[in-house]
Structures are given as C-alpha cells and as structure tokens.
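Raw record, unedited: Shikimate kinase
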Amino acid sequence: MKITLIGFMGSGKTTTGKKLAEKLNVPFVDIDKEIEKNLSLSIPEIFQKFGETFFRKKEIETFKTITTRFNGVIISSGGGMPAFGNNMEILKENSITIYLKADFETLWNRIKNDPNRPLVKLGRNNVKKLFEKRKPFYEMADIIIDTTGKTPAEITEAIEKKLKKIYKK
C-alpha cells in the first residue's frame, strides 16, 4: 500500500507519517527531506537559489522515484505539491492520498515561528491566501482526516480505521 499524506504546512504530515509507517511496518519518506538530501541544500536554500518552480518539479520527480522504488510506503508531501500542475492527479494515480485537515488558525500557530518554512516570511495574510488557494486541491484526496485537537497517535488511529473500512486490509 502506497500512501501520500497531503496538507498545508504544519498539518502534521511528517509526524503522522512516521507513526503510520511504524504501525504498518513500511518505510517512511519525507519528500522535502529527500530533496534536501539529494541536492545537499535546505529547502530555504533551494527556494533562494533555484526558485519555487524548480522545487515543485523536484517534488514530483522525487515522488515518482519513491513510488517506483517501494511497494509499500508512507510519503509526506510538501504542502504546495498537490496544487502544482497536475500533481494531484499523479499523486492519486500512484498512491492513496490522505488530507490531514486543520483550520488555518491552528496551522498558523504551529508554523509562524519556524525558520525552516520560507513561505512564512510572506506574512499571515498572504499565507492564509495561499492556504485558501491550495485547499480545493487537498480536498480532492481519497481520504480526509480532520486533525483539529487530535494528537498524532489519534490521527494515526483515525487513518488506520478509515483504511481498514475502505480498503479492507
């Protein structure tokens, strides 16, 4: 089973992904970390040096490599990945997509002081516009999990229940 966790910055994709991979006994791959490793640069450095379009192309290339390499894997996508080009279509064709949904205030409070999130520098209002722009893409996911007020363990449990119900596995 190949699962891609999608959602805005701060939705818990990495934390939840690691827990879910452990429970399902499959590898976990964070696309951002994979890109950083492959290019030997941090995400802010990649944005600064090459721009967002370059980064978004790297995301989907990396996703395709991962889904080819593993039969079962949990993937944490970048927050903007589903909203770039036809990425959401590619994600859905090659994996089960799960949207970790949270309201903007919750997300903003999680990310506003994180120096590793270059888009936060745009300011609260612009980040909110970005969130609103990406939301329709996130909502195309195969499964939507509301993470509001839930711990990573509770989110993981909710995903497992939903997967068992839908995919009987």
